[in-house]
Amino acid sequence: MTHLAHLEADVVTCRACPRLVAWRELVAVEKRAAYRDDVYWGRPIPGFGDPDARIVVLGLAPAAHGANRTGRVFTGDRSGDWLFRAMHKTGLANQAESTSIDDGLELTDAWVTAAVKCAPPDNKPLPTERDTCAPFLEREFAALTNARVVVCLGSFGYEAACRHFGVRPRPKFGHGVEVDASDVAGRPMTLLCSFHPSQQNTFTRRLTEPMFDAIFARAVELSAFA
Q: 182 phi and psi, to 5 degrees?
């Protein structure tokens, strides 16, 4: 069994955070009306993609009725619609949408994951929950030995990446900000920041599709020269 397979097994059986366990399981029982006939996953969500990936996409946490329902990060929600459409345009995904874990989506040179592996209430993990989950992210990056670019979706993902790679002082988060973490990472590494493709950002046009597409075009460019 590979390091990533061991990690996945440990992630999906984790019950370390009582508040998160209670919430993810409650959501899986109460469900959303639109998904009342679905069988929810209701467990932690491991990362997925190409084990040889040079690009890692790092989000906040699974969505309660997205990944917590489907069992795959960014699958089955509006944020994922934006993400995989952008990745498809740059050749990182074989299709532009992801609706279920068995829909045929495959990633090339990319890995998608979240800093916290369980869906949190109000999409806000507590600091203790974030820190409890951090060893999973450490193991993930250790296994992804070819990773050279981390696309940080939102400030939470960016801060998690900075903590992991020991970036101090931490430059201010902003869309399109690039941070060289090569020295502290022990390998060529760029943190590339993007506004999160949440409805809060996309509906208000704080994040537009061309802005988001440009992030992934830049990630591909950076990874090619790392």
A: -60, -45
